[in-house]
Amino acid sequence: MVVLVKRKRLDILVDSPLTKWLAGEAEAVGIPHHTFLPVSSGKGRTGSWRDEDVSGALAKKMFVAVAKEEQVSALVDALAPHLDEYGLVVVISDVEVVRPDRF
C-alpha cells in the first residue's frame, strides 16, 4: 500500500525579474526544489495585465514548491517584509505526497 504524507504546496505569483531572488530565498530556508511556470495574463487590485512586453520586465511567473510546513512558514516569514513592495501573491495549500523524502 502506498503511504501518503502531508506537506504544504506553495504558489507565489512573482514578477519575472525577481525569480532568482525568490529561488534564493527558498533555498535559504531549505526549499531547494521548485518550478517556475509562465503566466500570460491576469487581473488584480491595480487592474488587468498581459505579458506583452518584449523586455520581459512586466512578465510574471508562478513559483510552485512542495515542502514541510516548517520550511514554508520560514519562507513566508522571510518574504513578509516584501509582500507589498514586490506585489507578491502567496497561496499555501495542504497536499499529500508519495515519496515524502523528496519534499
Can you give me a brief rundown of this structure?
The chain has about 100 residues and is an alpha+beta fold.
Task: Summarize the structure in words.
With 103 residues, the protein is of the alpha+beta class. It has one domain: Alpha-Beta Plaits (2-Layer Sandwich), CATH 3.30.70.120. The protein is 24% helix and 40% strand. The chain has helices at residues 19-28, 69-79, 83-86; strands at residues 5-15, 35-39, 41-44, 47-50, 60-67, 89-97. The strands form two sheets. Strands 2-5-1-6 form a four-stranded antiparallel β-sheet. The chain has a two-stranded antiparallel ribbon with strand order 3-4. It is globular, with a radius of gyration of 15 Å. The two termini are 20 Å apart. The mean pLDDT is 90.
Total domains: 1
CATH architecture: 2-Layer Sandwich
Poorly predicted segments: none
Cα end-to-end separation: 20 Å
Q: Helix count, per DSSP?
A: 3
CATH fold-level label: Alpha-Beta Plaits
Supply the helix-strand structural class.
alpha+beta
Strand arrangement within the widest β-sheet reads 2-5-1-6
How would a crystallographer describe the biggest sheet? 4 strands, antiparallel
Q: SSE order in H/E notation?
A: EHEEEEHHE
If you average the pLDDT, what whole number results?
Answer: 90
> Rounded to an integer, what's the Rg over CA atoms?
15 Å
Total strand segments = 6
Helix content: 10-25%
3D shape: globular
